[in-house]
Amino acid sequence: MVDVRPFRAIRYTEKAGTPKNVITQPYDKINQDMQREYYEKSPYNYCRLILPIEENRYQTVHQRVYEWLNERILAKDEEPAVFVCRQEFRLDGKNCTRTGLIAALRLYAYSEGVVFPHETTYAAPKADRLNMLRNIQKNLEPVFLIYSDPEKTTLNFFAEISKMPPIIKVEDELRVTHKVWRVTDPKRIAVLQKALDTKKLVITDGHHRYESALAYRDERRKQTEWTEDSAFNFHMSYIVPVQDEGLVILPTHRLLRRFELTIETIEALASFFDISEITPKADEIQRFLQQHRAEHVFCIYDGKAYGLVLKEEQKAELSDPKASSKVRLLDVVILKEIVFKTMMKTGELKIEEDILYERSLRTAMDKVNSGEATLAFLVNAISPEVVWEVAQKSERLPEKSTDFYPKPASGLLMMDISAEEIL
Length: 423
Fold this sequence. Notes:
The protein is of the alpha+beta class. Helix content is 31%, strand content 24%. The protein has helices at 32-41, 47-50, 57-70, 123-136, 153-161, 186-196, 207-223, 263-270, 282-291, 325-328, 331-343, 361-369, 384-391; strands at 4-5, 10-12, 74-76, 82-91, 94-106, 115-116, 138-139, 143-147, 168-171, 177-183, 201-205, 234-241, 248-250, 253-256, 273-278, 297-301, 305-310, 355-358, 375-378, 403-405, 415-416.
């Protein structure tokens, strides 16, 4: 049973200034240059909470949150609500929209079969987010999840709500417009809760936040009086139906820094792939990837460009009896396990030192041209439906397999999970 509830959101007030100057990208997408730029935009920019520059950052954020609440830079809603949240953006020359629900989602251990991960997590980011929760007792950013709504019950609900004026409308630095509608009517909320009751949810972004919240919940249950309605049993979550046409995953291209395309490598690749040399231009490479989208395809760029399509007879060779055929035959898995580890003998690749990840095909090629990398492996994106299917088999994809775009803006809403907060 999926338990989603309204919550009393903490939001910026007019005293914070222009909304565009206070919102940010999610904390794990902020580099040092962005961090400095955000700090310069406003003394109340959300980066000062989710990724502060100061060394004693947990104590700094704790003090800052309560100062902003006392000064009415931030204020908590009197009435609990759920929120419909929409992103409007352009991609490949097309106008796109993606709409979902922001609500308090009960935390479920993965073993309960309600919430499923799709990526591997790491100890250091989880420790960081857990320390943040301990110090401020707030969900600063939502976890992003998907679910299936073939009946379009929630899709129709979102369409109805979004006919009204939003309470928030702001454009971020990537020219994505974020709109938020507030829903307080108990009858309407009950319709949503019933529609989501039997769903299964897959985390798309925020695995570290989710797992840290589970750990924090378990800690708090040992330390304080609690009920099933205690807010720390929940996490602020942004959930989107798989059927939403604006649910987009961008490809994540791989760049190697210390490896070259040798004659031996090409010969090894030729045993598994049909290889053709293609015009080394971004448009031509993109066209090749799209033409062979239904197959298993990559392009390699090192100044020259090569298209690789998996030979039909080699599919059976990709055997890992512990994984489903769906996972074994994902392009990113073939690339990692067959091309990198088996044919190129790369061993484990260290991020930044050995391998880079790049969203833009053109930027990936530019990094090879500039010498920042020696080889670019250019790929198609995984579909949301595949992520959905794979995750529910309790299987995880290789790191950087998915890039759901755009990210929900940080700074729109915050959720209080202190011990006295009840949902």
